[in-house]
Amino acid sequence: MNRALLAEWTKMRTVRSTAWTPWTAAGLTMALSLPIVATAGPDTTACGAATGCDPVRLSLTGVQLGQIAVIVTAVLTMSAEYGTGLIVQTLTAEPRRLRVLTAKAITVTAAALGAGLVSVAGCLIAGHVLLRGNDLSSPLTPITVPAMRAAGGTLLYLALIALFSLGLAAALRDTATALSTVLGLLYMPGILTRFIADERWSILVDRYAPMSAGLAVQSTASPSAQSIGPWAGLGVLAAYATAAMAAGAVLFHRRNASMSL
Question: Which runs of E-coded beta strand occur in the chain?
Fold first, then answer.
């Protein structure tokens, strides 16, 4: 396992397509969060006491954009090897397919957590500084249990998104197919809810869609008003990630067990 982990880490940090994408995630997260927080205040419609705004969740809004880089990293970690034929060399060096997939899972999870730690810390610090002086700064300082839960939950969210993406990439193998599938499953439910007239169906979709359910962990203001609880929502995403990794592991093992190496 140590050799497999070293091999996957070496590939991730030396291959151009995956070397910078984890840190791109941090950059994209900050690039979206900073302007949103900078323009928020009690006198704006973006966030204010009258709107019941959640400053912690507002500060972490950029995760919805930054996660795309995490998804790309996880998908390419698997699918790029099929595109280049490197998968043959990988399985020649390590014939145990599940060990290879486990090493890839650990690597992409570590990359997602590293990028998430930088971006989450930066977003919360920016939220404290930019929202200082109005009635929204108090939930960010001193550090509260809900804020810590939102920060830690966001890190777990990014790790689960990475595993979800890796599992689908292992099952589908093609980069374009895997990316479109992951992005569609994450973003399409949120778009569809805008066109659903029945509020009950809209709440149901919001409760069990992977992205909206997982991001419920960022909520710190009026959690009872959310369609699903913070940890329950993260559990929904964990179920998606587990199912994707299980399907990917089965197909990865079966397909490559019959490969002529």
Answer: none
**Phi/psi of residue 201, each to 5°?**
-70, -35
Per-residue pLDDT of the chain (261 residues; tens, 9 = 90+): 788 888 888 888 777 767 777 788 888 998 898 888 887 754 444 454 445 577 888 889 999 999 999 999 999 999 988 888 888 888 888 888 889 999 999 999 999 999 999 999 888 888 877 776 544 444 454 466 778 888 999 999 999 999 999 999 999 999 999 999 999 999 998 888 877 777 787 788 888 999 999 999 988 876 566 778 888 999 999 999 999 999 999 999 887 544 433
- Separation of alpha carbons 13 and 253, rounded Å: 26
CA atoms within 13 A on the CB side of 123: 36
Which residues are CB-neighbours of 158 under 8 A, at least 6 positions away? 25, 63, 67, 70, 112, 113, 115, 116
H-type alpha helices, 131-229: 145-172, 175-192, 199-208, 210-214
Query: What is the pTM assigned to this prediction?
Result: 0.87
Taking the C-alpha atoms of residue 177 and residue 169, their distance in angstroms, rounded to an integer, is 8
CA 245 to chain centre: 15
- List all residues 6 or more positions away from 72 whose beta carbon is below 8 Å from its beta carbon: 21, 179
* Residue 209 CA from chain centroid, whole number: 14
> What angle do the packed helices 2-14 and 63-84 form, to 10 degrees?
110
Give the separation between CA 182 and CA 69, rounded to whole angstroms: 12
Question: Which residues neighbour 181 within 8 Å (Cβ) at sequence distance 6 or greater?
Answer: 168, 172
Reduce the DSSP state of residue 209 to 3 states and report it.
Answer: coil
CA separation for the pair 196, 46 (Å, rounded): 24
